[in-house]
Automatic annotation (TrEMBL):
The lineage of its organism: Eukaryota, Metazoa, Chordata, Craniata, Vertebrata. InterPro entries: CEP70. GO terms for molecular function: gamma-tubulin binding. Keywords: Coiled coil, Cytoplasm, Cytoskeleton, TPR repeat. This is Centrosomal protein of 70 kDa. One of its GO terms (cellular component) is centrosome. It comes from Heliornis fulica. GO terms for biological process: cilium assembly; regulation of microtubule cytoskeleton organization. Directly interacts with tubulin-gamma; this interaction determines centrosomal localization. It is found in: Cytoplasm, Cytoskeleton, Microtubule organizing center, Centrosome. Plays a role in the organization of both preexisting and nascent microtubules in interphase cells. During mitosis, required for the organization and orientation of the mitotic spindle. The keyword Cytoplasm applies. Its main location: cytoplasm.
Length: 246
């Protein structure tokens, strides 16, 4: 018995023992130990052992709870030490906690990656927008859309430069500017036609065109006959040839 008490005393005195566990006892037990050349105090030893026993039972409950949590969070699970009949250690609980923390960190890193339902919804939406009937047609249509987009982007950039617009000007501004430019060109062409025909009235323009339409076919026929009679091919040679005939 004394040997067992001495062993317990050495355990309680070790640096690994929790502080405040070892306390000197007073009374018959202490006197008895002194008479037999031993010095140890165990008045708080039974409550401490009971507390340790409760903690060991709580350790099993904690291990069971952590195992349930790991089944929900961790994809890879280790074998339960209880299955092998081995006692539960703090290292086993720490291993489970580390595995859970690692799984949570990995999920946080991958949380920004889109899920399969999200990717499927994106592909379906693309098919609806661009009239793609099958998945095999998604990539060709993507390439076609990309090509058209590049062509449109280049065209808009060239229009911005030609029209001396800011690069941030929206397409509506470009269209309005092109429309105004077309109006200016049309007005200029109308003025030139009016100056050419010597009139400002649209009805007069129509009459002039009708007169020219009636005049030019006979005139052209006359010129062709003259060229044939005079045996020449150039209009500029008609007058000199007629003068020589005189």
């Amino acid at each position: 018995f004394l040997k067992v008490l001495s062993h317990i005393d050495s355990v309680l005195r070790s640096p690994r023992a929790p502080p405040l566990i070892y306390k000197r006892s007073k009374g018959p037990v202490q006197n008895y130990m002194k008479e037999n050349g031993q010095e140890c105090g165990f008045e708080h030893l039974p409550p401490t052992i009971e507390m340790w026993a409760d903690q060991l039972m709580a350790l099993k409950d904690l291990h069971r709870s952590l195992r349930k949590l790991s089944l929900e969070l961790v994809s890879c699970h280790t074998a339960d030490p209880q299955d092998n009949g081995e006692p539960i250690r703090v290292e086993d609980l720490q291993f489970i906690v580390d595995a859970i923390l690692e799984e949570i960190e990995n999920k946080e890193k991958n949380s920004q990656a889109p899920s399969l339902p999200t990717l499927f919804a994106i592909v379906s939406h693309f098919q609806k927008l661009f009239d793609v009937n099958s998945l095999s047609g998604v990539y060709p249509r993507m390439n076609e859309v990309y090509t058209k987009l590049r062509e449109m982007t280049n065209a808009m950039r060239n229009l911005h430069e030609l029209l001396e617009l800011d690069s941030s000007a929206p397409p509506t501004v470009v269209v309005d500017t092109v429309g105004k430019l077309c109006d200016i060109i049309n007005e200029s062409m109308t003025e030139q036609v009016q100056q050419l025909l010597g009139t400002q009235d649209i009805h007069s323009i129509i009459n002039k065109l009708e007169e020219h339409e009636c005049f030019f076919p006979p005139f052209q026929a006359l010129i062709q006959d003259l060229l044939c009679l005079l045996e020449i091919s150039n209009l500029d040679d008609i007058i000199p040839t007629v003068q020589n005939l005189k």
